[in-house]
Amino acid sequence: DQSGSPSIPEDVLSLARGAQHVAVFSGAGISAESGVPTFREVPTGLWERFSAQDLATPEAFESDPALVHTWYRWRAALIQRVAPNRGHQALAEWQRQLTGSGGSLSIATQNVDDLHERAGAEVLAHLHGSSTAYRCAECEAPVELPAPRYDSDAAPAEPSDPPLCQVCEEGLIRPGVVWFGEPLPMEPFEAAADAIRAADLILVVGTSGLVQPAASLPLLGMERGTPLIEINPEPTELSDAMHHRLRGPAGELLPALVQ
Ligand code: BJW
């Protein structure tokens, strides 16, 4: 192949070319090539360096709000500094093409970053919330915080307290993300399930498939026998259920698939 792009098996290419309604389920791996750390990879994954129990649970926020607040502000700043990669761009382009020809491409992401959107795509569902959304931990009033500023990729040393809610004047402002033990937002979850049930092709990109209930969403396609394609350099919890497994980085495989 003279272009240097990875070769995709012909049967997978023809599935992609023939699809009219594509459902994409994405995870941290699609943003890895942009420089956003994933969660579970050794040694770069966030949960390899930080304790999920101390950061991504409601109990953690209750016991050390400054630590959790500061960590999420650091993550938000990191996300803001990076740019979408060729994987995000390929999906955005494919979405434009399909929408223009009467089809559709829906994106349900577990990521709290906005890199799909910044590549020009419309996201149907942010299943685990967003790094730019905040709300009161007590009265749930939504709040906008000024853009965070941390210059370094290293975690900030000095924790600072989250602001107090101006509405109820009782609660602390918490990140608008879904922590372990919390329910997923119902509307995005149902919208993602509907899109996956209606799809004629499902792409599972850059997720370990370990975190429920999100990880079960792509399997809804099995009800109708919809072809499932995984894009991931490594085998995952979902690999056995896939009809096709493309092993490699999303930033190379997605442009080759969507060409
Ligand atoms: C590349 C690549 C490249 C690298 N290209 N690919 C036992 C069984 C079942 C469930 C449970 C259980 N025990 C507890 C639970 C429940 C729990 C759960 O699932 N735990 C498991 C870990 C065991 N789930 C929950 O608690 C959920 N809520 C819930 O169940 O509620 C029930 C309830 C109902 C009613 C009332 C009350 C409660 C909530 C889960 C929330 C998850 N939150 C996080 C943090 C979000 C905020 C933040 O960003 O900080 O979401 S955890 C973290 O994991 C984040 C991610 O969205 C999520 C998924 O991770 P993801 O995206 O798959 O990343 P990785 O790192 O795991 O994988 C990256 C992949 O990319 C790898 O495969 C790489 O190979 C690949 N990759 N480079 C393509 N270039």
UniProtKB/TrEMBL annotation:
The keyword Electron transport does not apply. InterPro entries: DHS-like_NAD/FAD-binding_dom, NAD-dep_sirtuin_deacylases, Sirtuin, Sirtuin_cat_small_dom_sf, Sirtuin_class_III, Ssirtuin_cat_dom. The keyword Transferase applies. PANTHER family: NAD-DEPENDENT PROTEIN DEACYLASE SIRTUIN-5, MITOCHONDRIAL-RELATED. NAD-dependent lysine deacetylase and desuccinylase that specifically removes acetyl and succinyl groups on target proteins. Modulates the activities of several proteins which are inactive in their acylated form. One of its GO terms (cellular component) is cytoplasm. One of its GO terms (molecular function) is protein-succinyllysine desuccinylase activity. Substrate binds at Y72, R75. This is NAD-dependent protein deacylase. Its EC number is 2.3.1.286. The active site is at H128 (proton acceptor). 2 residues (Tyr-72 and Arg-75) present in a large hydrophobic pocket are probably involved in substrate specificity. They are important for desuccinylation activity, but dispensable for deacetylation activity. It is found in: Cytoplasm. Pfam families: SIR2 (PF02146).
